[in-house]
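Researcher: Re-running this chain for the archive, since the previous output was lost when a drive failed. Same request as before.
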Amino acid sequence: MSKIATISVQTLGCKLNQAESESIARQLEKAGFAITGGDKADAFILNTCTVTRGADSKGRHLVRMLRKGNPKALIVVTGCYAERAGNDIRQCGADMVLDNKEKMLAGQILMRQLCGCEKGGGEVFERDRERVRSFIKIQDGCRNYCSYCIVPFVRGDVYSVDAETVISEINERVMDGYREVVLTGTEIGTYSSRGKGLKQLIEKILAETRVERLHISSLQPQEISLPLLELWRDRRLCRHFHMALQSGSDAVLERMRRRYDKNMYRESVDRIRGIISDASITTDVMVGFPAESDVEFRESYEFCRDMEFAALHVFSYSPRPGTAATGMPGQVKESLKRQRSLRMLELAGDSAERFARRFTGQTRAVLWENEVRASSGIYSGLTDNYIRVYARSTAVLTNTISSARLQRPAREIGCRLLKASTKGNYGELWSEIIE
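Model: Regenerated C-alpha cells:
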C-alpha cells in the first residue's frame, strides 16, 4: 500500500473557524487522508483569525514554526488574516493563501496539489481526537459594521445555510458518534432561510435529529425573545448563553456602534434568568477603546460585576486597518490598557468562582471529554450549563454523558495534574460520578 499523506488542520480564532476547519478535515478524511492536529505532517491547512493584532501575530508565528519544522511540507493558509493580509502570510513561508471565499475549496485544492487527484489513495485514518463535540456553521457574514470590528470586511456577504442541510449535517455527526453539536456563525441570531428564523431552525433540529446536546454559540441582547427562550424547556438545549457586552458604558457602546445600551442588555439577562434560572451567561468585554475615560471604565467594571457573569473573556482594544475606530482621537496607551485588563481579569476570576459555587452539592449531567493527562484517571467535562468539572474514574469516561455531584472548587483539591490543566480558571469544580 502506498504511503498515506498526513494533513494537519489547525485553527485560530472563533467557533465559526472551528466549524469550517472541521468541515474541511472531514472532506479530506473521507478522501482517504490521515488527518491530525499535530505539528508534523506532509501538508498543513491553517485557518486564521484577524480580530486583533495578537491574532495576526499568532498566525505569522504558527506559519514560521510549521515551516521550520516541516521544510518540505505544503502549507496552505486561509481565513480572515489571509483575506486581509495575504502577502504577510506568504512572506512567513506559506505556499498557498486562500481568501474566505476560497476557504471551503481548501480540501480539494490540497488534494490536487498532493497527488493530482481528489483521493488519498489508502484507508481512512481516524482523526487523532475524540469525537465529543462538533461545530456546525449555520450562518456567515455581518452588516453591523461596529466601529472597531474587522469581521464585516473579511467575512463577505451575509447568508444562512439551508435548514435541510443543517439537519443532514447534524444527523451525520450523530451517526459518527458526536454527543453535542454547536451551532455557530458570525451572527446566528440573524439566521433566515426560506422565511424561517433561528427559532424555527432549533425546533426543526429538536424534532428531526437525535442529537443529545444542542448548544447555541452566541446571541445578541436584542435577539433574546420570550418565544425563543421557551425552547429551552427541552433539556437537550445547553443552558448556556454567550452575549457579547464589549462595554458597560453607554457612551462607549455608542462610539462602538453597538445596537443596544446597558438597559437592553440587563433586560435580556433578566429575561434569560427569569425562565432558565440555572443558565450560565458569559460575555466578551473590551478595555481601552478609544477615548475610554477612567469614569467609563469604572462604569464598565461595575456593570460586569453587577451582572454576575459565569465567565468573562477580557481583551484590549486593538486597532484594525479600515475600521472607523482606528482613526478616532484619544487612543488609549498600552500601559493603561494592561492595567485595566488586569483589573477586569481579576473580576472575571471572582465572578466565575462565585457562579460555580452556586451549584456545589447539585447533581448535573456532564459530557466528559478527555483525561487531563494520559493514564491519570482524572477526566474533564462540561455540565449542561457549561461549568467545567473534573472527576476521577477507573472507567473510560470520554464521550459519555453521566450524572455528577458537584463538590468544591477544583483549585482547592491540591492535585498537581489538575492545577496544570485549569490555567487559573477559578470557576472549575471537582465532582463525583453518580452511578
